[in-house]
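Notes on consecutive records. When two proteins share a document, each keeps its own sequence and its own token line. Never mix them. Below: protein one.
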Amino acid sequence: MHMRHTKLLNLVNREKRVSVAGLARELGVSEVTIRKDLTTLEQKGLLRREHGYAVMITSDDIANQLSFNYELKHRIALRAAESVHNGETVMIDSGACCALLAEELATNRRDVTIITNSAFLAAFIHKQPNAHVILLGGEYQNESQVMVGPMVKRCVADFHVDKIFVSADGFTEDEFMSDSLMRAEAIRAMAEHANQVIVLAESATFQNTGVVVAFPQSDVQTLYTDENIDDTFIQKLHESDIHVYTVSMSEEA
């Protein structure tokens, strides 16, 4: 995403509703340029346009998650993408960082196949030049835009991959947590067919507890996060033989 787009999103999310003229003034570009930017961002589902204004999205879906701390999520995704090679098949969970990881792979890798239960992810990257997605079937969960239920387990049974990339909603002393029982069950079913479980999560995730266990620490091999993660958490993760990779919080990174 263009840095101007990130600054534009930050302005809209801070003010809730900003005029095109105000955005042009703040960002030092023409109103024509701002309108083009708003079209691009609206198509991605990151904001909503009204006549002469840009309006923050207030839903809890992944598009809304992407509109906050986009650059940080993007850096986490780029760091995780370094572990994926051309021609590889991987599984990817739902979540903002995971969606950006999928976008990076579909844009800048060759012949990478993505297996997912996230309808949002499939739609998010469908225009990318190298997008090759296998969308698992199941019961559609509207609020998270993912497939859940026993059909996910049946659909994934014939696959096996080296890596599955997953998100987390929270953390306890010994476990990565989810806010949804059905999503947790679906992603565990997928992880049974992967050699490595790799978590992508902002450091703020570690301040939340979540509702249900997604994975015990013992099932996770790698975490990609940002440098604000507390040293206490890093120590706990290292004690469980989890490799922790952090990215800088600064925009210059």
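Protein two starts on the next line and is unrelated to protein one.
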Amino acid sequence: MAKKKALHLGDGHGPGPHSYEWISGTLRSIVGGDMDSEHIADVAGLDMGTLGKYDLIINYMGGWTPEKAPKKALAAILSYVLNGGGMLGVHCGVVAPTKGCSEINHMFSARFTGHPAMRDITFKAAEGAGAHPIMEGFKPFTVFEEPYTFRMDEMGEVTLLMEFEHEGKAVPGGWVNAFGLGKVAYLVPGHDKGVFEDPGFAAVLRRAAQWAAGIIS
């Protein structure tokens, strides 16, 4: 059977937060046993013809804006997922303004609202998440990370996978949802290379990619 193919979206150069270039080797090694990977930093030219070659989009593109993703390219990405493509958002891949690229918020059933200062965060399984295939063998892990917060879409059919504690409350740390015929997964961790090198995060990231690409179900 031919290996699945993943398209990585991500920008940023050199070592530093949210730099795809810095985390690319580690990210590819995590998913590389299951699928071949290609990367683009400029999404403006994407269309359905191009996206149709892939089984999964791994989205590490930070700060979605109309300049980065003109309407035609954004529509192609949304159509790809709506028609059955897989989408895995990692960390900054969910960040989009309320105007211009707000469709990203609808696809992930959440809107990023900000984050306090970085700190050690322990990600634990959300209640009832153990039955989901992504969570098989999951063990809590602690990483130095940005505690992203969200306004979840009340209309979205979200299954929480992970959560962490912030100001005495449980905050979503990862989830899955449907978007049309497509599978969508999102994971909060991923600020820099060190997070991807954590074995606990690497395990859940790999299984999330497998699930969104249709390798496990």
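For the record: DSSP finds six helices and eleven strands in the chain.
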